[in-house]
Amino acid sequence: MTSPATSTPITSLITGFVGELRAAGVPVSMVETIDAMRALEVIDIGDRRGLKETLAATLVKAERHLGAFDTAFEVYFARSPQDPAGDESGVGAPGGEGEGGAGGTGGVEDDLDDLRRSLLQALLDGDMDALQAAIGGAVDRLSGFEPGRPVGGTYYLYRTLRRLDVDQIEAMLRDVLTGQDGELGDLDRRLLSEEVGERMEELRQAVQEEIRRRLVADRGREAVARTLRRPLTEDVDLMHATRTDLAALEDAIVPLTRKLAARLARRRRLLRRGRLDFRKTMRRSLATGGVPLDPRFRSPKPHRPEVFLLCDISGSMATFARFTLQFTYAMSTQFSKLRSFAFIDTVDEVTDLFGPGTDFTGALARVAAEAEVVLHDGHSDYGTALAAFGEKYGRDVTPRSTLIITGDARNNYRPPQDELLAEIAAKARAVYWLNPEPPSYWDTGDSVMSRYGRWCNGVYEVRTLRQLEAFVEELSLPGSRNRIQAH
What we know:
By secondary structure, this protein is α/β, with parallel strands linked by helices.
């Protein structure tokens, strides 16, 4: 009998699944793929929950990647669509088009009431088979699903839930559970609300899963996976993040910085011995007949940069500045000194407003209220800000200082005064510019990125936490002083 893990269908399925994880940004190595295949040899692959847990344990290394894993798994290992009405396609059942279907409204409403009662009873009984059968009927009747139609699953989900009137089902469920328990105290009411919320979420997830199964059967796994693919937290564009994205980014920053700090500390330990001193090693080997038993190393000169962080906090740059400040301060142990400055059309030091344990949302509100960053009209003016920085803080910049400027270099058609940046760069150890716009936008409209970029040791596109992490890692390690081409 052929082993399930080595049979062609499951091997092809796992290969496609791993490919989708990689396309979504989840790092999966060849060794981890082999581990997953070997693990499948000792489990029952018919147990879907066990299969999912096994693949997650062997392929996923970070909790923040579980969302992408769950989505890919639901697509690649989707169950066959339900067929409660006996129609293979799941299309053409009464009520498939329009709000009330083709027949009389009374009969349709009676049918919908029966369907709601079936769903309610399945939720009360915890009967997943009955729930799946009822949901199959609901999707048949209410979603308007059409094979080959280029419509996303979100449309079908919205249409089904709206016409099913899940609020009415929730009210019915609450009434039944309240009647069972009689008079309720505050704690009981809270527990009841949580239970109702959990069961309704089960209903919504089950409807979504049923629609996804039908889409996979109609369009294929790869096509559906592409439409459902979302960027990982570390790859979310900071300039266009939603409120949900911002919350996820907040949660991701601390683990990312801890991992990065540990990696940098390990590399520094490995670099303490310095490079091999070939001449001294050969001289020492004369005492052992030319065998280099005692290699000699040059003494390294490790450094931790002194960082000046100069952030544009105008308009859309505020969110980018917030996460740049938060990430950099979380990495502050990797720098000998860290000072931060904010500007719009003039500059002010805000170092005292940030530090360990800072609420960065509140700190940025304090910056907007307390820092003197507006001199004229409150629109970005990099030239005036550089002039103010040079006048107020230029004498503090030394050959040990690394200046990091964050902003889009859009100067509202005002004089860029890039010669002032040249004067600062001449005194500093290095100057880096982090731009949240893609390079194709640089030097378009009022952007003067190339005017400033020629005086920088590096100009980086930094739109995501992943790119910010890569920059901080390079900055923190020895050897980052060499001039870098714009990325």
